[in-house]
Amino acid sequence: MNLNNPETFKALFKRAAERKGSVRALEVLLGKKILGKKLLDDTAAQQYVAELSDDRILAAFTKQIFKSGFVWRVVENKWPDFEEHFFNFNIEKMLMMPEEMLERKAADPKIIRNYNKVKTIKANAQMMFDITMDKNISFAQFINDWPSEDIIGLWAYLKKHGQRLGGNTGPYALRLLGKDTFILSSDVEAYLRAQQIIDGGLQSKKSLTAIQAHFNKLKTES
DNA sequence: TCAATCTGCTCCGGAGATGC
DNA sequence: GCATCTCCGGAGCAGATTGA
Fold first, then answer.
1. Which residue is nearest to nucleotide C7 (CA to C1')?
2. Is the CB atom of residue A160 positioned under 7 angstroms from any atom of strand B?
3. CB atoms < 10 A from the CB of A213, how many?
């Protein structure tokens, strides 16, 4: 570990600006978030997350689950049929769907016929429903309220209580929705190892805590 | 032309090892 | 003894490629 002397935000920013051509070019990339067809700043993005309907969150989770380990283009091409098959991911309708119906839909070639992944739609709908009942808030509000300084906590929650939302699936889905989260891509992992912020397994508690601390530090410095 | 095989990609879970 | 970590094989399907 090299926690005493990791790269500062200033040095990282300078290096990134050189790589992207100029400070301005980098700021264009960093300054706003693209959500759907909209370009939003951080405050607007946060508002966007809080106002999402829960069916869109279930749709995002499901899309990412099917993309995981598969050609993303195929999932995108078939997505309109997914929306149609699963009632636009309406939570109540999904929870009322009998197993036989789910099994039948999972055999339709219009969608990706992976029954194990199809089953996650209902399971994750149940997780979302439970939270809205327990906390009396929408699932979107639940995600929005979770502090970005402990985003690994939200990852762990989704992994434990949801289905197939572990690994990078949960983080990717959260980012797709507009939640402020980092992604442990291979490039990011290589950087973290080069900076000696982590040395063991990427998903170990020790590593995740160190990574979160580093991102929190960068956020404070930025 | 058709069938078989390969490729792409990552979560999941089990087993054994390690640390506290 | 329990929790956590690490490693590895299995699972899943569409599209591309290869061979008969």
1. A201
2. no
3. 15
Nearest partner of A202 among A178, A176, A168, A175, judged by Cα = A168
Please write the tens of the pLDDT for every residue from A97-136.
Answer: 887 777 777 777 777 777 777 878 888 888 888 888 888 9
Q: Is the CB of A200 under 7 A from strand B?
A: no
Helix axes A54-67, A72-85, angle to 10 degrees: 140
Output the distance from A181 CA to B14 C1' rounded to whole Å: 31
| Nucleic strand B near CB of residue A112 (< 7 Å) | no
Q: Model's pTM, two decimal places?
A: 0.80
Q: Which of residues 130-159 of A touch strand B (CB under 7 A)?
A: 159
pLDDT per residue over A148-178, tens digit each?
888 887 887 887 777 778 777 888 788 778 7
Distance CA A57, CA A174 (A): 9
Just give the CATH number of A52-177. Answer: 1.10.340.30
Which residues interact with strand C by a CB < 7 Å criterion? A 68-71, 74, 77, 109, 112-116, 200-201, 203-207
Give the residue extent of every domain in chain A: 7-39, 52-177, 184-222
